[in-house]
Fold:
Amino acid sequence: MNPDSKNFYEVARGLTSWLFTTDHKRIGILYLICVMTFFVIAALLGITIRLELFSSNSEAGGSLLGGGEIYNRILTLHGVIMIFLFIIPAIPGVFGNFFLPIMIGAEDVSFPRINLLSWYCYIIGAALALFAILSGAIDTGWTFYVPYSAKTGANLILPLSAAYMLGWSSILTGINFIVTVHRLRAKEMKMFRMPLFVWASYATGWIQVIATPVVGITLILLLLERFLGIGIFDPTKGGDPILYQHMFWIYSHPAVYVMVLPAMGVVSEIIPTFSRKTIFGYSFIAWSTMAIAAIGSLVWAHHMFTSGMADESRILFSFLTFFVAVPSAVKIFNWLATMYKGSIHLEPPMIFGLIFVLLFSIGGFTGLMNGTLSIDIHIHDTAFVVGHFHYTMFGGVGVMFFGALLYWFPKMFGRNYNKKIIYLCGFLFFVGFNMLYGTMKWLGIQGMPRRYADYVPEYEFWNRVATVGSWVMVGGLFLMIFHLLYSVFKGSKAEDNPWEGTTLEWQTTSPPPLVNFNEPPQIPEKPYDYPEEVKS
Amino acid sequence: MIEAASDIAREVDYAIIVVGGICAVFFLGIVAFMLLCIFKFHHTKTTKTKQIHGNLFLEITWTVIPTILVFYMFWVGWQGFNKIRTVPDDHMVIEVVAQQWLWNLKYPEEDIQVVNNFHIPAGVPVKFKLTSLLDDVLHSFYIPAFRVKEDCVPGMNTYIWVNADMPKNGESETYNMFCAEFCGKDHAQMIGTVTVDSPAAYEKWVQSVKAEANKPVDMKLALDATSPEVQGRDGETLYKTYCVSCHGSTGMGQAETMVPNARDFTNLVGWKQGNKINNIYETLITGVPGTEMRGFTSLSPWDRFAVAHKVASFYKGSGRQKVSEAEAKALEEKYKLSAPYEPKKTLAIDQAMDLLLKEKK
Structure:
């Protein structure tokens, strides 16, 4: 390897070299800066929500935010930023962009300019979304249910345009990944030799391309209603508010798989690497990824078991929902089996991988309770659902976003971080997380509805536990973010392959050169191929 | 666990224990296996790994077993759901109309209506017919003690039903009732109570509501804010129930609550329908057309006067005009305020249908 070759940071300098770049790695870094910024803002908003819920006495003037109106706007901002600006683009935008081409031995994605366009769509969408919420004082929650949302200032058209713009960003990334996987694999990189993260990004690409257009359709229907007076969603015009819920969830339910599949892909990278063992059941994990993508598109109405939808539909969608559990369970069992008879290194990324397995399992199991019709009639729209959702989306996707960052940090920045600090952060995060969201589940079973700015005094004790948990959790997270930021500039120089990884990104330099490889990489016959003898 | 106050609630709890139990066993298995691997195969204790690429038998096992188990869970939920959705024939009906941010409950058989806090008899299946006002938003009628909820959708009818246990003290027991579907600013204040009564206590409550709702009005006392009849009403609580969400606890309206165009009660300028007590009284029945101000038909006449006086009390000056004799008379005649109670001779359409069906059988 040529030690003089410049890495991709060094080939060009200056702001314009970033804003007009078509290098997939630089676009990944651009995404990283944006999603991290939005994550920190939205986490602070979340903390504010928990502070308001520390006490149940807004009647007596004890309300921090002065009542429901401001609380609801903060709640909406928190949800919209976290979902549309953080979780959906986070792993595909940052790590998909950065590593998918490297992992299949390509120099870049198939359409580098469209890749940059997708980042601009994201930025425009983000600006539109924030403008819509702040200018229109939107307080509808991230689901924008009609008829309530139709009464707000911006009348849904602005926020949906934002979702549409962000959807374009998603679609362009998706198309890019699908085409790149089909067209740009290195010669010996067969489909069933690809790392599982590539499989996951590929499946995600298909969902993005197929599901996202529904946002556009909804927007057109809304425009027809607003400007031609055709009653579609508005009951005073003869429309049906439940139809809006269908339209919303036909996109937004598959979107949760857009969020979670890449996270599962990262786990499938981390567990073999730190067990020094080949993945157990490679093709079963790959196929279960495709199965989740397919079945996940058919279960959206399980968000609507108490909406007034026909009983027959509720039964059908409950039945379908349970099937998504099976491929997810298959993945968990395969990951555990991968650890069996390995040589386990509990490095920080592995710790986050295991935290993912635990928290996502809890999220999945409580999802089964939500899917059980009779139970859901009770716990639907309560804090239980909020807890469940955060276990899967934050305990799952959020944790794996940070897991991926820890795993690939040396490769992306060529620097190391202090492992002891990260262990401490992981511990604080895990404890705080369960205090916060585990408690929410308990509150939900006790009957506390969600999106409540205030509550009856019976619920006060557990709400206080949850709020304290939020401090512990965010303390750990922010410490980690600050430490990683510090390490980008001040960390010690990283090796090319610090984790003894077997996938292609570990064959190049840290950070990689502009064309990813100075020498053509060796394509292994199996993606995770370890010798049986381990280095002592 | 919160109290379960019906057979269905206990069945839901049973389902939670069954499904949650299966999940807990699996979860503990996952944790145990993970810990075993971490300790047994930690890199400090291993010199060799075994590169296992997979095992078809295991894959089939851990696909088939979860599939069977989720089928079972689905079946448990379906059975419970059928009970939740199947109302027994011999039920009574309560019509619930939700609006931002209170619950109107009408008892067609008893010919009474109340707001937020209501009673039901123990041991009688009660069907709640749910909807929201047509130009209102989604709400969801939720009673945790009965483990049931269902959305109230404008322009659509939905339902739930309950059959409450006999109260433990033999007389009455009160549970929380919440709005569970996000409906805006005072979503968290859209709370009511359901009191389960023994048949005797229920009958007593119905009679007291009926007597209150139909108590003839003496216009002279009703128009006098200082009369004991008006003072005896809890105008403060009534104001909180009906008005405070939009008009605020200081009566300043939009300036206090941020609800667009909510009237400021502390001045007399620009009242669309007049600012005298009789005008306020009428507005509380009709609402203000074309605005968010609604009529509150569930207020009894005396309570409505109490609210009107409470609203008027926010203006501290002396510019508000007195109601003339003629105006008082007109109001009295228009709403038959001093007439004694006569039971309604009409039937709700549903009741009539039910009776016809029974006759046919």
